[in-house]
Amino acid sequence: MNRSLMAKQLAFGWLHFALALPSIYLLLGMPLVLREQGWSGTQIGLLQLAGLPAVLKLVMAIPVERYRLGGGGYRAWAGLLGLLLGLALLGLAYDFPLAQPSRFYAWVLLISWLATWADVPVNALAIRCLPAQERLRAGGIRSAALFLAAVVGGGLLLVLHQRAGGAAPFVLMALLLALGVIMLCGRVVTAEAEKEPEVLAVSERGDGGAMGFFHQPAVGVWVALLMLLFPFVGAGWVYLKPLMLDLGMPVEQVAWWVGVGGGVTGALASLAGQRLARGIGLGRAVPLFAGLGALALATLGLVSHMAAGQSLWLWGAGLIACAMGALSGVMFGLMMHFARAGRRALDYGLQASLFTLSRLAVPVLAGIVLDRLGYPAMFTALALCMAAVVVLALLGSRRLEAVLQRP
């Protein structure tokens, strides 16, 4: 990979990190703090619904695709939304109403909405700027950036919260986001003035809108996997930190072992997973990574049933972090491939909306199972669901290999 492509990959990686960090801290890091404050499993599960704006990414993509703010297009949209997100983070730092769940939900919903909207033009710009052969690598880098955000948001910011108070993490996130906006306005990310010749052709066929996405080859298999590969593994990860707290592990130790350690493991698995997928092909890689997720959840279910020691729990946490990293990298790469020329933002928004529908529903259901039946039943149910996904991946994932050959 030449220096120009490397600079683009790293720039977009930082932008993904800066945009993902607030949501990760609020939805994955804060449950530990909220559990310490006495919030129930159901309340923590309901907090995940603050990510509901991601279901509407398709709606958010429409103005991004249609209107060019000041002639800047995707870049201008990302800059404006990033600025508003930074202001919202500073607002929550000033208020921080942990004792008023409804008010706290409102702040989290606003931040999640702005971060979600900003994600659309950033990803559309990445898809436009990076060549087709770099998309699977870009998916791995994006996934690694999200896991590094998990290291910071699910670990280091929790330590900062414990030592410097609740406002400090939000001020730091606003500063990191400001650096991302500065990078966006620089010349590392190439200009998007070029026109894509496919736009007219797509419009003339009459499938230039959102429904045209479903006219692509193998899209049915991809949509099913898009909605099912990640949410069961993701739900297990959401409840891992509260579980460790319930087992008596100190808050800061959970932050270091699960937040930092799990995040680093997931980032490395993202980079290794995309390399493996490029080597053995998606037909083998997708079922393999899904099987790793089922194994991780089954391990956590068995360990919780046995009431095993801390070391076995950490092994289970490592397995689930590896599965999440490997699955995320492949999925993000495929999302880029299924975004049509001239409809980058629209198709990315549609896929992200479908992904979020299942990702948000499963943690809520898992929280209800947790409150009524306990951790062993919750992890066992998630493992059985993931095993069914493995079967689906074995039956359909080979059809996706041809996608990598498309421009």
TrEMBL record:
Bilayer disposition of the protein: Multi-pass membrane protein
UniProt KW keywords: Membrane, Transmembrane, Transmembrane helix, Transport
Pfam families, A to Z: MFS_1
Annotated localization: Membrane
SUPFAM superfamilies according to UniProt: MFS general substrate transporter (SSF103473)
Species of origin: Halomonas llamarensis
Protein name, per record: MFS transporter
Transmembrane found in the keyword field: yes
